[in-house]
C-alpha cells in the first residue's frame, strides 16, 4: 500500500513537471512569435503620440542597435537582450519623431508673429531662489571649443558663474504663498556675455524634483505641480532672465547654449545610441565630437531630449525676439580621461 502511495505521488510530480514544461514551451513560442517583446501600454501610447510620421512597430524593431559600448551579450539572455535593444531603439525613434514635430513648430513660430514670451521681473528671480555668484566654475571642457568658435580662450573675467537654489518660501503663479522648499532644485550656470554663450553645468528644475519626490501612484498632476513651484521655475525662463540682466541691450545676440556634465538617463541613452552607431568599441569622444543639423534624426532626437528641450522652449517662447535660427548641435565627451557627455547648441541666425 505504501509503495502504491509513493508511486502515485511520483506520477503526480512527473505530470506536474510535464505540464510546466509544456507551459514554458508554449510561452517561449509566444515570445518568438512577437519577436520576444509584448508591446506595453506605454509603447502603444508612444506610438499613438507620433503624428504625421509613417513609422511602424516593424521599423522600430528593424532599427534596434546596441547603445554605446555596453556588452549586452554578457549581461542578458537572448530574449532579454532583444527586449532591451528593441525598447531602446523604440525610445530613440520616439524622440526623433518628437524632435521633428518641435522643429516644425519652431519654424512656424519664428515668423515674428508670435508673442515675445513670458515676462518675469527681477523680483521673480528672488522669489523662492537664493543666489550665489561668489564661486568660479571650472569650464576646462569648453576652453578649446570656445577658442575655435570665437577665436580666443575664455578667461575668468569673461565668466559669470551664478548658482540658484530653491530653498526659500515663495509665491506661485497664482499668487499663493508656498512654504515647501525643494533644496535639490538648482540652476548652476556659467554666463559668458563676451562669447555670447551660456554653459549649464548642474540643473534640476522644481517640477523635476517634485516628480522625484512623489513617484508612481503619488505622481502629481500638472496643475498640482504649478501650485507648488515658483512662478519662475523653468530652465529656459531662468537662463533667459539672468541673461537679459547681464546683457540688457542686445540679449538676442545669444549664440551658444551648452550643457556640461550630462547625467540624465534618457539623454545619455540617446547619446550612447548615436555614438555607438558611429564609434563602435571606443569609450571617449573628445571635441570636435559629432555635429548634426535639425535635418537629421540625431539632431531631432537631441532637441527633444531632456537636455535639449530647454533650448526648444527658449526659442519657441521668444520667437519674436530671437527670430529664425538654423540650429545645429555638437556632442562630445569631457576633458581627456573623463567620461561624461557635453552638448553644444549653435543658435546661428538663419
Describe the 3D structure.
The chain has 350 residues and is α+β, with helices and mostly antiparallel strands. Helices cover 45% and strands 15% of the residues. The protein contains 13 helices and ten strands. It has helices spanning 2-33, 41-49, 57-62, 78-109, 122-126, 140-150, 206-213, 222-227, 235-246, 265-278, 297-304, 309-317, 319-322, and strands at 129-132, 160-166, 170-171, 177-178, 186-192, 197-204, 256-262, 290-293, 328-333, 341-346. Strands 1-2-5-6-7-10-9-8 form an eight-stranded mixed β-sheet. A two-stranded antiparallel ribbon has the order 3-4. Helix 9 packs across helix 12. The termini are far apart. The relative contact order is 0.13.
Explain briefly what this protein structure is.
The chain is an alpha+beta fold and 350 residues long.
What does the radius of gyration come to?
A: 25 Å
* Classification by helices and strands: alpha+beta
Helix fraction bin: 40-55%
Overall pLDDT: 78
Give the beta-strand count. 10
Report low-confidence residues grouped into runs of 5 or more: 27-78
Strand arrangement in the largest pleated sheet: 1-2-5-6-7-10-9-8
Shape: globular
Main sheet makeup: 8 strands, mixed
Order of helices and strands: HHHHHEHEEEEEHHHEHEHHHEE
How many helical stretches? 13
Q: β content, as a range?
A: 15-25%
Give the N-to-C terminal Cα separation.
93 Å
Amino acid at each position: 500500500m505504501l509503495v502504491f502511495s509513493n508511486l502515485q505521488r511520483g506520477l503526480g510530480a512527473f505530470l506536474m513537471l510535464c505540464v510546466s514544461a509544456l507551459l514554458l514551451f508554449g510561452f517561449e513560442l509566444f515570445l518568438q512569435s512577437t519577436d520576444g517583446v509584448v508591446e506595453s501600454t506605454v509603447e502603444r501610447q508612444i506610438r499613438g503620440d507620433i503624428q504625421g510620421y509613417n513609422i511602424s512597430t516593424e521599423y522600430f524593431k528593424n532599427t534596434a542597435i546596441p547603445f554605446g559600448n555596453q556588452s549586452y551579450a554578457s549581461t542578458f539572455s537572448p530574449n532579454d537582450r532583444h527586449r532591451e535593444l528593441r525598447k531602446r531603439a523604440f525610445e530613440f525613434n520616439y524622440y526623433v519623431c518628437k524632435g521633428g514635430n518641435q522643429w516644425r513648430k519652431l519654424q512656424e513660430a519664428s515668423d515674428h508673429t508670435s508673442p515675445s514670451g513670458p515676462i518675469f521681473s527681477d523680483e521673480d528671480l528672488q522669489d523662492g531662489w537664493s543666489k550665489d555668484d561668489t564661486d568660479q566654475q571650472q569650464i576646462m571642457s569648453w576652453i578649446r571649443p570656445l577658442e575655435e568658435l570665437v577665436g580666443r580662450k575664455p578667461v575668468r573675467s569673461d565668466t559669470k558663474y551664478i548658482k540658484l537654489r530653491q530653498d526659500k518660501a515663495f509665491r506661485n503663479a497664482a499668487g499663493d504663498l508656498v512654504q515647501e522648499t525643494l533644496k535639490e532644485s538648482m540652476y548652476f550656470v556659467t554666463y559668458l556675455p563676451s562669447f555670447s554663450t551660456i554653459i549649464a553645468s548642474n540643473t534640476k528644475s522644481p517640477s523635476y524634483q517634485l516628480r522625484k519626490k512623489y513617484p508612481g501612484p503619488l505622481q502629481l498632476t500638472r496643475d498640482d505641480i504649478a501650485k507648488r513651484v515658483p512662478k519662475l521655475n523653468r530652465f529656459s525662463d531662468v537662463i533667459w532672465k539672468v541673461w537679459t540682466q547681464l546683457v540688457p541691450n542686445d540679449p538676442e545676440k545669444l549664440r551658444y547654449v551648452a550643457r556640461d556634465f550630462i547625467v540624465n538617463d534618457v539623454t545619455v541613452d540617446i547619446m550612447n545610441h548615436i555614438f555607438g552607431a558611429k564609434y563602435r568599441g571606443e569609450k571617449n569622444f573628445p571635441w570636435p565630437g559629432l555635429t548634426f543639423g535639425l535635418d537629421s534624426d540625431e539632431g531631432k532626437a537631441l532637441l527633444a531630449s531632456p537636455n535639449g528641450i530647454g533650448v526648444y522652449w527658449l526659442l519657441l517662447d521668444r520667437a519674436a525676439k530671437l527670430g529664425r535660427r538654423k540650429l545645429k548641435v555638437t556632442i562630445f565627451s569631457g576633458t581627456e580621461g573623463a567620461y561624461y557627455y557635453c552638448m553644444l547648441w549653435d543658435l546661428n541666425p538663419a
